């Protein structure tokens, strides 16, 4: 900043217009604050334009494509289903453009000043904004950092290639991969692996970081592994990557797994191994904002950093890189700045995976509950016994409740089933209300419905489930 440069004054400046940034901006404006939002691209951020929304357009396309091939059993004949990447790209563009215009309209309607440019701190109360060749300096009363994150690149990946796909570039494909090698174990890897398999690609899923399993409750992991095998997705566990080669015809991944060296040849390679915070161009070093050991901004339950007037939200803070986390934190920060008591917690943030069937969970797994010292009790129900699952022809999956045997308080909800993303709402609300198993067991459930799985799982906690065969009791051993 040039000495003597004129500083413009702002009440609140928000850096980043993704789900967290624009949610914070609108909530702050609703509460009477004058808000300036700085975004180098279009409002909506990476989630809307390159991540969450495009990925769900893909998973929905894959699911509908699979369903279309099974319509015959309902007496419906529509001819052979075909998938077109070109038409899919048009659908994705229409959805993204529509939502983007919606966000822009909401910001305008709420009186939020939007500046397209790159913002960086020059001190604890000053920000510079660069727009092409123009530079402006601002002094702020308060600021919220919401610059998101960038996918990590595996260490063994030495150079980029058109056949190597990131969590963003995969949605720019123009043709279906013949054989997609997926490297990762997170929800993004699972969504990509199952979606492209349903669309017709051969898929090999290689778990990253030498993992031997997925980070779900054991019941979900067991069912997921079975479904992957059923759908002919090859799963390689506990592997260490030795080499990745690429050429104009495909990729070759060499891994060491279970004491042997395996070479996997495919047409494309996809990776998803975590994320890093976008802080390199924010000028954090010119402020007194504190970072943790992993490089994420440290915040309290009000999203306040070590500098009282600077808040941070979303992927640049510790925890999962979820859009709903960012949006919740954005509203929390705005409310605290307006003097309203508000705080956030990651304890009951649901994990959702748009596989087929989808996966959703909230709270503790059986293993985590045991590690925390609870006397664990579980109830589990296979969706093969659910009437509505049979009607719609989607009987894969399981529902599981984890509870404390001493208090009957429910500690975790876990589901892999058609409709799981909507079904987990019951678990989130129940745990927020500190529900006991009787609170899940008592209400009427619509029939037939997938929701009845929760009733069966809760009754299974007391060995009272109607649609689960009784466990076989071991005969006493004779001493004669």
From TrEMBL:
The UniProt entry's GO biological process terms, in alphabetical order, are:
2-oxoglutarate metabolic process
Q: Which UniProt keywords apply?
A: Disulfide bond, FAD, Flavoprotein, NAD, Nucleotide-binding, Oxidoreductase, Redox-active center
Disulfide pairings: 47-52
Which Gene Ontology terms cover its molecular function? Answer: dihydrolipoyl dehydrogenase (NADH) activity; flavin adenine dinucleotide binding
Active-site residues, record numbering mapped to chain: 447 (proton acceptor)
Q: Where is the FAD/NAD(P)-binding domain?
A: 11-330
Q: Does the keyword Nucleotide-binding apply?
A: yes
UniProt cofactor(s) = FAD
The enzyme class is: oxidoreductase
Q: Name one GO cellular component term.
A: cytoplasm
Q: In the record, which residues are listed under signal peptide?
A: none
The record's EC number reads: 1.8.1.4
* Sites where the protein binds NAD(+): 184-191, 274
Q: Does the keyword Hydrolase apply?
A: no
Q: Which residues form a coiled coil?
A: none
Q: Which reaction does it catalyse?
A: N(6)-[(R)-dihydrolipoyl]-L-lysyl-[protein] + NAD(+) = N(6)-[(R)-lipoyl]-L-lysyl-[protein] + NADH + H(+)
NCBIfam families, alphabetically? lipoamide_DH
Q: What else is known?
A: The active site is a redox-active disulfide bond.
Protein family (similarity comment):
Belongs to the class-I pyridine nucleotide-disulfide oxidoreductase family.
Designated name of the protein: Dihydrolipoyl dehydrogenase
